[in-house]
Specification:
- It contains 8 helices and 10 strands.
- With 259 residues, it is α/β, with parallel strands linked by helices.
- The chain has one domain: Rossmann fold (3-Layer(aba) Sandwich).
- It has a 6-stranded mixed sheet, with helices on both faces. A 4-stranded antiparallel sheet has the order 2-1-4-5, with helices on one face.
- It is globular and about 45 Å long.
- About 6% of the residues have low confidence.
Length: 259
C-alpha cells in the first residue's frame, strides 16, 4: 500500500530547500549531536536537526524511536543532556527548564494537561506572557483559529470532547508569545473532522510566521503540512526528506515506519 500516492508534491525548486523568513538566516531551532538520558537509560544518540523560521518539520518514527524524548530534551525534561540546542541562536542546553519557554518555545505534550475544573476561557487566561518580544494570540484570534472553543467558552474541561481538549491544549501555548511550537501527537485518536481542523490551524499559524516541530504517527496528516521530515530510529535521525521528495522515498518510508 502506498504511503504517499495521494500526497501532492510541491512544485518548483523552492520545495527542495527549507523556507527562511525574510532578513533572517538564524534557525528557529538548531540541534547538534544531542544525547539525552533518563537515569541510566541513554535514549538519544547524537540527534541533529534544524527548523527554519516559518517552517513546519515533522519527526516520524515507530513508537520508542525517540521522537517525544527529543521534544522533552529541548524543554529540559529529560535527565542529563549533551550536545547543543539553540533556539533562535541562543544556546539552551545548559539552561534550567524554567528558562527554556521564555526563549519563545511552546510545548504541547501528548497528555494535554487541561484544567478540568476550569472553563475553556479560564484555561486560556492561565498561560503567562513569556516576554519574548512577540504578543501571544488574543482570545478573538484563538476563537477564529478554533471556532469550537468559542462555542464552548464557558464549558468546564470535563465537558469538552477529546478533540476540543486538544484544540485547547494547542491554543494555550499560542497565548504565551511562543514562536516555536513543539506539538506531540496532536492528531492521535481524534475524529477526522477534528484532525482536519487542526491541520487548517497549523497551516494558518505557518502563514503567521510560526515555526513548528511536529511529532506524528499519522503520516497522511503530517504529509500535507510539513516542509521537511526527519525519520528517527533508536534515538537517531536516519533519514531526512523534503516534501517534494516523498514519492522518491516511498520505499524507505515504508521500511522505516513499518507500514
Amino acid at each position: 500500500m502506498s504511503l504517499v500516492a495521494d500526497i501532492p508534491a510541491q512544485a518548483g525548486p523552492a520545495a527542495a530547500s527549507a523556507p527562511t523568513a525574510p532578513g533572517s538566516a538564524t534557525p528557529a531551532l538548531a540541534i547538534d549531536n544531542l544525547h539525552a538520558w533518563y537515569g541510566e537509560s541513554h535514549v538519544l544518540h547524537g540527534v541533529n536537526l534544524t527548523v527554519a523560521p516559518g517552517e513546519t518539520v515533522c519527526l516520524l518514527g515507530r513508537n520508542g524511536a525517540g521522537r517525544t524524548s527529543t521534544l522533552r530534551a529541548i524543554m529540559g525534561l529529560t535527565g542529563r543532556r549533551t550536545g547543543s540546542i539553540r533556539v533562535a541562536g541562543t544556546e539552551a542546553i545548559g539552561l534550567p527548564r524554567h528558562r527554556v519557554a521564555p526563549l519563545g518555545v511552546g510545548y504541547c505534550p501528548e497528555e494535554r494537561g487541561i484544567f478540568a475544573s476550569l472553563s475553556t476561557r479560564e484555561n486560556l487566561f492561565l498561560p503567562p506572557d513569556l516576554k519574548t518580544g512577540f504578543s501571544g494570540l488574543s482570545i478573538d484570534e484563538i476563537y477564529t483559529l478554533f471556532p469550537n472553543l468559542k462555542e464552548r467558552a464557558h464549558s468546564p474541561g470535563t465537558r469538552l470532547s477529546g478533540g476540543e481538549q486538544q484544540m485547547l491544549a494547542v491554543a494555550r501555548i499560542l497565548r504565551t508569545g511562543a514562536r516555536l511550537l513543539l506539538l506531540d501527537e496532536i492528531s492521535e485518536g481524534l475524529a477526522p473532522v477534528i484532525v482536519q481542523a487542526l491541520g487548517r490551524a497549523i497551516t494558518a499559524l505557518k502563514a503567521k510566521g510560526f515555526s513548528v516541530l511536529l511529532v506524528e504517527q499519522n503520516f497522511r496528516f503530517s504529509a500535507h503540512l510539513a516542509d521537511r521530515f526527519y525519520v528517527m530510529e533508536r534515538g537517531q535521525i536516519v533519514l531526512e526528506i523534503h516534501r517534494a521528495d516523498l514519492q522518491a522515498n516511498q520505499a524507505a518510508l515504508q521500511s522505516l515506519l513499518g507500514v
